[in-house]
Write the structure tokens for this entry.
Amino acid sequence: MQGDRTVRMALLGGGMFGGDVVLRTLEDLERCGIAPYLGRVGLDHRARDVARVAFRLEAVGTRTQGTAERVARQYRDRVPGSAPAPYWGERPWEDIFARHAIDVAFVATPDPLHAEPAVCALRNGAHVMVEKPLALHLREADEVLRLSRERNLVVGVDMHKRYDPCHAFLFRELVPRIGKPLYGRAVLEEPLEVSTKTFRWASQSNPFSYVGVHWTDLFGHCLGLTPASLHAVGQKELLASWRAEGAAAPIDAFDSMQVSVDYAGGFRAYYVNNWINPREFEGPVNQEMELVGTLGKIELDQQYRGLRATIAGVGSRTYNPHFTSDVPRIGVPEPSSAYDGYGKDSIVVIVERALEVLLGHATRDELRGTYPDVESARPTVAILEAAAVVAARNLAFLRAGQGAPFTARFSEEGVELVGPEGEGGVLYRGKPY
């Protein structure tokens, strides 16, 4: 294939990320191509080869008609000449792939529904970018990996924290200077609105799978870690008694989870997550990290980036314009803004890797390890799946006054639930990493 071609895209999901970060990134790709954004992610040497590639959003698929039509309309309003078709229903991707030839699909559906549209896209010959987590179960990740390999298709997971400049500096410049890493702690706490209003699917996931995935991926990827064992506990108090407007029952989901993972070689990480931060908290999220080694210690407060404002009627708030920000376009007839930030960078990297295969410059296997691929996502999926089971078992035992005796063990043979006699079992057979 030549570099002068049009890449046809489909967006599946129009919620908090799909209808914002992903959609805004696709707008810039259709308006300007991908070349202007490659320097930020170390791919500027590819700019000339892909400068003539055009992008077109063919379709948007969401669960409801109103959302699909709204997202498509907003896109048309911001991108002159665009015409994405809206689709809706329980599986809108089936209609999209039946009616359109799609080159790259962007999956931003709810957490429990990432694997199914990704598999559908792969079976129809499309490369895939999927929001984190790749899946909640290893068997789903296995199917995605199998199809990706068999059909020479790129599947990238939107792990944008890898592209946060603070993280890049921390792991590239500081971690090599603290000796052998001994232990780490990572916190990410989301607002209550996320679990009670934004997402209707909180009971099908948990705060660790939703945001703890960022840290398990970051630590695992940047430190080259292999999980060995896991202990997890969680609390169900607030959401278990929450009565959302129009809801028939409370939300059966963990308010918070604390997961300890021991890795081969002795490193231990403690992951702390919730999605019940009160509305009055000063930042959109609370996040921090600590890494301790034999020769030093690193601490990073990512919630407070040095920018705080106190405004009447609003209160004190912290801001993170590094994630995404609008950049007003100069000299255009209509007021509009380009989109910038590390939240966009990971999407750009995945699209460029897919282009390498589409243009015949490389195979999927030749690109392995140069983006957040399925192989790097599988250990994280294994940790997420095991943590959900272990935390649920431990909560039941804690409520019965029997402590929190369950753990999970990872090995070449699979993932094993370890508990009191007769209470264990095999969660997954086969190599989980």
Observations:
- The longest strand covers residues 181-191.
- The longest helix spans residues 374-399.
